[in-house]
Amino acid sequence: MPKVIASDLDGTLLDANHAVDAYTAETLQTLEAQGLRFIIATGRHYLDVRGIREVLGIRAYLITSNGARVHDPDNQLVHAENLEPEFARALCQPEFAAGTRLNIYTDDDWLIDAEDEWLAGLHQDSGFTYQVSDVAGHSGEGVAKVLYIADHEYLLGLEERIRERFGDELYITFSMPDCLEVMAPTVSKGHALTVVLGELGIAADDCVAFGDGLNDLEMLQTAGHPRLMGNANAKLVAQLPDVLQIGANTEEGVARHLRALFDLK
Prior knowledge:
Its cofactor is Mg(2+). The protein is of the alpha/beta class.
């Protein structure tokens, strides 16, 4: 039986409105009382996820910015990896950012190049939000992640151009079809999960993990008991053809699967 539960947020643990539902929170709190440990693994900013953890009411480790940051349940920084400043500066220039809504994450800030109503609506549980800034003029120091938001087809072309320019010097992934994310080359949720499991002294075989997006691939490959959401990205499903698919996030899929797995009434 698993000893630790790792889960993505958007499209996985959160509901259709990107919020915590009471049934899921109650399920996780009940399992924690029985001794289960939790890891939240997401592309979101640490300060945002810290607020979501409070709403869930559990003492979880936080893997954020797709693995560029790891914090323990007491908010102590466990692991951090930044983009090389020269790469971060280059990625923020119009050569790559034109035609997108450009964002960067640092330890304390989420910077964006213009207002974005859709993004502002994703963070009602935590209250954390962006600051409009001259992102192209940023020094590139301390950047955990560069995020481009645009139509998926446009981002596919942008991904190809970034790979042609930087090769394997960057980790590039999609968190959602319209969100292309760029981190340091050794960053991934899978690597960060290994870090946390080492901190806990728990083997990967004792971890059940849930995800729906391409940025969850390495985490699901690392965990001994991977689970795909019913609403998972088709490209992710194709890469993990033998992984069990459960209910969708809109059906409280994670909570319902955990209740069955741990025989909660």
